[in-house]
Amino acid sequence: MADDLLVIIPTRGRPQAVMPIVRAWQETGATADLLFAVDTDDPELPAYKREAARFKAGGRIRFTFGKRRRLVGTLNQQAVKAAKNYRFLAFMGDDHRPRPAAMPWDARIRECLSGGPGIVYGNDLLQGEKMATAVAMTSDIVATLGYMAPPSMVHLCVDLCWVDWGRGMQRITYLDDMVIEHLHPAASKAELDAVYEECNSEAQVSADTAAYYEYRDGGGLEADLAKLRKLVEEA
Are 32 and 6 in contact (CB under 8 A)? Predict the structure, then answer.
């Protein structure tokens, strides 16, 4: 039986991350469902399929294979689909790891979001409260906007948008003691690989930064906030 929380992890080029994520997951006592979203053109596709074969079909840990849409495109496709069946939706990168705490992180998410539309995020030990690098939200937000992240961005800056949404609708919670560690080269916790090099290239940084400022200052954010504030009022 499906849980009420689905965590979506778009992943590329890192099949070796699957089992460490699953082990970290299990160590926290989480019961949420986990979906790895893999590109069918990934050079590591056979390795991903071997990892997928480890898990029972229809279980809590699942894989989906589809056309490459980059991080935001893949996340949005899976989130819109899942919003029909889950009360809460979350995103983590394949370089995030939830860590054990007195209360499992997914239980904290449910507790914080049980009062209606909202957003919650934890401490990634890198950006902290500044950016929601891993995030959870009520699925009605995704259903209302038609996406989980603004589609004008490809990879970067969406963590700023999630904070903008939450603050703008006055329904956001930052949990400093809910650690979802970001194993990023910027924190000297990972080596640069082809995925990091692509998504943090000068061209990608420039494009996503420009898209974010256009969304924030060009009317896109205000239009989305109008929908989200109405959602809160009607809840």
Answer: yes
| Contact of 114 with 29, CB cutoff 8 Å | no
Contact 173, 112 (CB under 8 A): yes
Q: Which pLDDT tens digit goes with each residue over 73-110? A: 999 999 999 999 999 999 999 999 999 998 999 999 99
Q: Which two tokens stand for residue 120?
A: 């919650």
Cα–Cα distance for residue pair 11/100, rounded to 1 Å: 23
Whole-model pTM: value is 0.95
Joined tokens for residue 73: 């495109």
